[in-house]
Design goal:
The complex is a heterodimer. Chain A is an all-beta fold. In chain A, the strands form 2 sheets. In chain A, strands 2, 4, 5, 6, 9, 10 and 11 form a 7-stranded mixed β-sheet that branches. Chain A has a 4-stranded antiparallel β-sheet with strand order 1-3-8-7, with no helix packed on it. Chain B has no helices and 11 strands. In chain B, strand 5 and strand 6 form a beta hairpin. Chain B is globular and about 40 Å long. In chain B, strands 2, 4, 5, 6, 9, 10 and 11 form a 7-stranded mixed β-sheet that branches. In chain B, strands 1-3-8-7 form a 4-stranded antiparallel β-sheet, with no helix packed on it. The chains are: A mainly beta, B mainly beta. The interface between A and B is medium-sized, with 24 and 22 residues.
Chain lengths: 109, 119
């Protein structure tokens, strides 16, 4: 099983800041990596797929990068609605055994 | 618009069974792979099972293999997760999710259904 590790677990930030979240895979997943945002009481929402492609309607302040084992999600200027938990997920395994990172929570500083 | 609505869930004793259903609308259901993903209270996300658009092949996480069964009815636009031999560590919110085309990530999610396994 591919283990996904996100860092940090919690990030205290202020609106307007640039934020970088990290995700590391225990073995190469190429660019088969997605990012999701989850707010309390809600289902996850797809943000990024293919490591760097934005989902439909996603604001341009969100961007993803990386390949192989190291990935980042960047929010260029944090808005109040961006405070949430962010998960990465690999979908490189076949037969499928999709795995998620443990999440990074963005807290208000 | 795409909608996924789960039903079922609730409280069940260890060793018991429960059935979750997911009704899809707003897209051509038969063309899409569907998965169930769960989230234990206060924890992260765990993929549970995938059923491909043609109902076969089917895949399960090792943690549920032999206990859970996924199925779909393309005429009724629904996917079902039959959960047997339930354990306390199966307690979670269960989400139904649509795969993006043939890829292994999820572009639409249901609102989730809580399953509690407790005596």
């Amino acid at each position: 099983e591919i283990v996904m590790t996100q860092s940090p677990a919690t990030l205290s930030v202020s609106p307007g800041e640039r934020v970088t979240l990290s995700c590391r895979a225990s073995q190469s997943v190429s660019t088969n990596l997605a990012w999701y945002q989850q707010k309390p009481g809600q289902a996850p929402r797809l943000l990024i797929y293919g490591a760097s492609s934005r989902a439909t309607g996603l604001p341009a302040r969100f961007s993803g990068s990386g390949s192989g084992t190291e990935f980042t999600l960047t929010i260029s200027s944090l808005q109040s609605e961006d405070f949430a938990v962010y998960y990465c997920q690999q979908y490189n395994d076949w037969p499928p055994s999709y795995t998620f990172g443990q999440g990074t929570k963005l807290d208000l500083k | 618009q795409v909608q996924l609505v789960e039903s079922g869930g609730g409280l069940v004793k260890p060793g018991g069974s429960l059935r979750l259903s997911c009704k899809a609308s707003g897209f051509t259901f038969r063309d899409y792979h569907m998965s169930w993903i769960r989230q234990a209270p206060g924890k992260g996300l765990e993929w549970v099972s995938l059923i491909t658009s043609g109902r076969s092949p089917i895949y399960y996480a090792d943690s549920v293999k032999g206990r859970f069964t996924i199925s779909r009815d393309n005429a009724r636009n629904s996917v079902v997760l039959q959960m047997d031999s339930l354990r306390a560590d199966d307690t979670a919110i269960y989400y139904c999710a649509r795969h993006y085309v043939d890829f292994g990530f999820f572009d639409y999610w249901g609102q989730g259904k809580l399953v509690i396994v407790s005596s």
